[in-house]
Amino acid sequence: MIRSLLFSLCLIALSALGGCGTPVVQVAGMGMTGYDTATMADKYLPKERIDFNCPANREDAVLERRMDERLLIKGYPELQPYSFDRHVYLVGEVTDRDNAAHATEIACTVKGVDRLTTHFFPASEHSDPARDLSLTRELAKRYQQSATLKNAAIRARVIQSTALVMGLTPDPQVKKLALSTARSLPGVTSVVDYVTIAP
């Protein structure tokens, strides 16, 4: 009797303390505070990974986020997914064919992907990711400044000075303008067209 009374008192004391402690978030089987979770997110998904070429709809944004997280966890931070109506373009640098094949397998496991198109570049000592990111941001800025391209579902990524222009548009003139804008950007040496004319 005394034992069960002590047990009950301990439970009451613990439940009373529960409201006063640090909030805890359950993350992958580990108890973490909200601060720990935010710190981990900053480490593995730093602000410089944020793509200012935003997806056209929420479903594509969620799909990209899922794939990006899965690729980061599996050790592919250099790859970036872009989704348009569940057709995902996975682009970036890879070290070799096995690396590319493994990344493709991982991407195919993400729920919601209807089609996957990959465009990988062999990693090179001459690569300049900071320069490519700067060119990508400049191209996104030019798209946002264009009245025609501002609301178009077209995005671009520059890798090894090659602009990959991706998206959907019902208007061939929008596609033409997006490609010519990419070609005119100083520092871009070639342009790959992944823009689909869709009704």
UniProtKB/TrEMBL annotation:
Residues 1-18 form the signal peptide. Keywords: Signal. It comes from the Bacteria. Pfam families: BON. Residues 131-199 form the BON domain. This is BON domain-containing protein. It comes from Pseudodesulfovibrio senegalensis.
